Amino acid sequence: MTQQSSVLYDVPGPRQRRITLFGSVAALIGLLVGAYYLIYQPLDETGQLSMELWGPLIDPGNENFALVWERLGVGIKNTLIAAALAIVTSLAVGTLLAVLRIQLKGLAQRRYAGLDPYLAYLLRGLNRTLSAVTRFCVEVFRGLPVVITIFFVARGFPEFGITFDNLWYLVIGLTIYNSVVIAEILRSGMQGLAGGQAEAAAAIGLSPLQTTRMILLPQAFRIMLPALISQLVVVLKDTSLGFIISYEETLNIGKQIIGVLDNPIQVYTVLAVLFIAVNYSLSKLAQAVQNRLSRGRRTANTPAPQLPPAALTSQAEGAGGP
Amino acid sequence: MSVLIDKFDVFASGFWLTLQICFLAAIGALILGSVVAVLRISPVPPLRALGTVYVNTFRNLPLTIVFFFAAFGLPALGTNADFLRIPGLDIVFSRLGTDLPYFRFALIALVLYTAAFVCEALRSGVNAVPAGQAEAARSLGLTFIQNLRHVVLPQSWTASIVPLGSVIIAMIKNSALIGFFGVIGDLSQTADQLTSAGGEPFIPVAIGISIGYLIMTVPLGAFLDRVERRQAVAR
Fold this sequence. Notes:
By secondary structure, chain A is mostly helical. Chain A has helices at residues 2-8, 14-45, 51-58, 65-108, 117-143, 146-159, 166-192, 195-203, 208-223, 225-238, 250-261, 264-299, 310-319. Chain A has a single domain (58-319), classed as Orthogonal Bundle (MetI-like fold), CATH 1.10.3720.10. Chain A is 80% helix and 0% strand. The two termini of chain A are 27 Å apart. The termini of chain B are far apart.
């Protein structure tokens, strides 16, 4: 970012440096005054800064401190469990889906010449249908809000007499959405690879499935690692949707605490800090991995890694939404 | 399936409300997001820091927390977000002017959250402009503002369209949360109401609601795909 901004204006000379310094001081004062009037004063006036409201969260001497953090600990544990399960299942299902779609695409050109014509038609029809069905599922589940998916899972499964813990509704809902997104990330990673990779694999006699499994998929994983890590952030953020099906994750516990202590701003501030700390470090990790990857490529004297299409990564980030 | 036809007006009004908040939130987020993007590339360090803090905060928060802040934190501060009762605008978007503040709270939460992503989309566009362009402009003696206005922004705009569109799609999907934060009558709350209170069969309602969201997201996504492919060819 510093590089880009320095491209937009000249390296400042002495006069410009004075102007910038002056501007910075003025801006800083402006920000502090703004923060005082817009944030501190309203908080102070409504008594939101009192120790009575903050105490249970930050003062170890408070009578409620231990209990509050014990409950929050339960919530954090539940959030992590749900996130971990959702990540593992989405990665597994997403990889399978990506492989399936790549295979179907490869089979689409096959004519089954040596087989009985009717059997050949049947097989080709089967390919077409499967590919249409997977495509349809991807489009639908990528287009639906995650909240709605989770809600439908929690409402719909009992409708058919299948009941689980709330945890599993949340995990299934998250998996449906994220596996589709991960499948698309991996698929675009595999398609972005140089064509010679698949051709060389075919030339040494690997079957299409072997090609995908041994040649394409590992490279796609490597190239798409940053996108996959940001998708993990999305999953972690989305577990907070568990509150709509009353799964006891962090935010839900927070709501229970607020029900007793009546300090919404304070509790949500603490939870926000927790979430930001974890997600920010994960994002930094994704960035570090990306830097590492591009550096590794450059020293190996091969063309720069193909970046995922902007639409896909930013949608993955943005959709992270809720 | 008859519920889809019998209750068509309920689905339609839910769709309309969702569309309203998406429209308003998109405009708000575009404006706020551009402001933050300008902050993030400005030459004044404190403003740059402010922009960075804003983006990192909202990008790493779950939207749910932002909504909780808006729906429970703002009333605790004793505000009803009345500044959003903009005369004239509340004739078309009637929920802006109601006494129940939840529509306005939801709007604030969506705008604050989405603006961070809009900022990043715009900035990625600016980053996509080759550095030589800005350098050439500087060598002609253009100032920072002139440089942005005449050289960088007109070119970054095309590179921003696709990521911006993805952000808007994500925002439409995120708007499904408003039904769980007190806004009555949007698509997601309609689903809840029809199935639990109305006792309607689940599957048809689910199909109806899904169609409502897919109408908004799928065509937009297909359009973006096309734009992206055309840009790829043009490059």
